Amino acid sequence: MSLAVLDWRRRVAALYTEVRATDDRARAHTIWRQERDRLFADHPASPLLAADRVAFAGLRYAPYDPTLRFTLDIDTTGVAVDLEVPTGTDGIVTFRRVGQVPLPGLGNLDVWWLLGYGGGLFLPVKDPNPETYGGGRYLLDTAKGADLGGHLDPNGTATLLIDLNFAYNPSCAYDPAWACPLAPPGNTVDRPINAGELNS
Questions:
Q1: Which is the most buried residue in 31, 93, 139, 173, by most CB within 10 A?
Q2: Residue-wise burial string across 30-46, b where 16 or more C-beta atoms lie within 10 A, e elsewhere
Q3: In the 8-state DSSP scheme, what is residue 164?
């Protein structure tokens, strides 16, 4: 299974590389959806339970909305806070808040850095839309290749490309055997987000 997960992550990283290189945003979203459907349907590391694969006809998404794509500055002036996430398989996974991004119309979202080996930016979001996964979805998880881009300056300034159309469910939404970090209070918004992956 380890090699299957490695191949899954390589394919996800390659998919996001293609998404970043595609100028037509709606086309990039279609590519993302189609490849995710292929991975979920056929890949041995798919988070779908075997019984759910039999009738699987694709994940469900909201229509692409170009107004929900933003390039946002990371505000790094706040106090760093650690978030410890207990998991059944990896023990305690620790994230450190490295800043916030102001999501237009929704408020600030905390940006987290994975403190474990290799690190990575992590940006989840939880909203009250009854059609989205109740534990929250992921916008970025760079440790696993889910990175839409932005500008990073080693001197400390940074922007992130956030596109709510690319919000996706964590693996634990499909299989309870997966232990996924869910959106903490600083990543919870009061308004529904009608974009991205929806409940099937």
A1: 139
A2: eebbebbeebbeeeebb
A3: G
Helix spans in 22-173 (H): 25-42, 50-54
Q: Give CA torsion, residues 42, 43, 49, 54, to 10 deg.
A: 10
Q: Which of 67, 62, 103 is nearest to 195 (CA)?
A: 62
DSSP H helices, 48-110, are: 50-54
SS3 content of the chain, % helix, strand, coil (to 5): 30, 30, 40
The tens digit of pLDDT for each residue in 29-84 reads 999 999 999 999 999 999 999 999 999 999 999 999 999 999 999 999 888 899 99
Closest-CA residue to 68 (of 189, 166, 181): 166
Compute φ and ψ for 167, nearest 5 degrees.
-60, 135
CA distance 196 to 5: 23
